Amino acid sequence: TAPSQSQSPVTVAVTGAAGQIGYSLLFRIASGAMLGPSTPVRLRLLEITPALGAAQGVAMELDDCAFPLLSGIDISDDPAVAFDGAQVALLVGSRPRTKGMERGDLLSANGAIFTGQGKALNDHAADDLKVLVVGNPANTNALIAMNNAPDVPRERFTAMTRLDHNRALAQLSAKVAAPVTDIRHMTIWGNHSATQYPDLFHAEVGGRVAAEVVDDQQWLEGTFIPTVQKRGAAIIEARGSSSAASAASAAVDHVRDWVHGTPADDWTSMAVPSDGSYGVPEGLISSFPVTCADGAWSIVQDLELDEFSRARVDASVAELVEERDAVQGMGLLG
Ligand code: NAD
Ligand code: LMR
């Protein structure tokens, strides 16, 4: 059926619009993959001044797709303008990691961007704003934006671990020779970094505990976990630049599930402000198993973490605490 244009457009702000992820993400959003086939979108693109010309070029290409759902594009180098009326804000713009860099190196390079953007979201975005931070270090950048936007409810700030979640699905699917659609309850815990913990003790394949289906602790510990943790670096090594189309696809998945809900028999992974669940200090933006309904997420409660899992969750959360303390020391938390 032809898309109905009866709904008013949803305003989606995207930062770093002229970058690699933007080049994939904007076309998926405009095609309706993120908000659905009957929701028109108005794009508001933010770029730094020297990249405005390139952003114009991307907007020309978006025009040339004649997407039925795309109701307008605005471009600015001023966050106050780009975030005006934003209902969904995808904070992608920041410097990507290059070969040999760890995410910690990005804290100072990128932290400052998110104070200004947090303030601008606070002052200019719509009341129903939802924020996804993709730019690295994503969890801590989301923490900075959240702390600089005191009038925006904290639960509206999230960071992306959906790419890690999807990577874990793909690795497990290949190992057990089952389609990804047979897998439920995958979880990424902690930070979007090499300390993250992809959990096969709660994941299920065809209704059975994934770790038992795999039945190979050496693969789980020596191959699966490090492969998922280091996949970002492996892509950088292979491609010469960081993941882009897969990151854009994960961002589409994250926002789609947040807005439209997770399937009744499954959950997903999102980095969200902790309420103290699973011993994660309150306010840290950490990845958890979450379900979404009616445009809101909630952390799946009461999962048992054995000693193996507990130690790995704790290590990643300890890294988030270190990152928080570092940006607090730089005065970025307001
Ligand atoms: P890129 O360098 O190709 O594009 C980034 C764009 O952001 C550039 O066009 C740049 O001009 C723009 N930019 C820089 N500062 C800005 C600002 N203050 N406001 C608006 N725009 C600004 O990078 P990319 O490959 O698109 O990656 C973007 C970010 O996403 C990087 O930090 C990367 O590490 C991160 N990333 C995260 C995940 C994840 O899973 N969370 C996955 C892949 C990449
Ligand atoms: C990824 O996971 O692919 C991105 O976060 C890029 C990176 O620096 O690892």
Automatic annotation (TrEMBL):
Keywords: NAD, Oxidoreductase, Tricarboxylic acid cycle. NAD(+) binds at residues 16-22, 110, 117, 134-136. Substrate binds at residues 97, 103, 136, 167. GO terms for molecular function: L-malate dehydrogenase (NAD+) activity. It catalyses: (S)-malate + NAD(+) = oxaloacetate + NADH + H(+). PROSITE patterns: MDH (PS00068). It holds the Pfam family Ldh_1_C. The active site is at residue 192. Its EC number is 1.1.1.37. Residues 11-152 form the Lactate/malate dehydrogenase N-terminal domain. Belongs to the LDH/MDH superfamily. MDH type 2 family. Catalyzes the reversible oxidation of malate to oxaloacetate. This is Malate dehydrogenase. The gene is mdh.
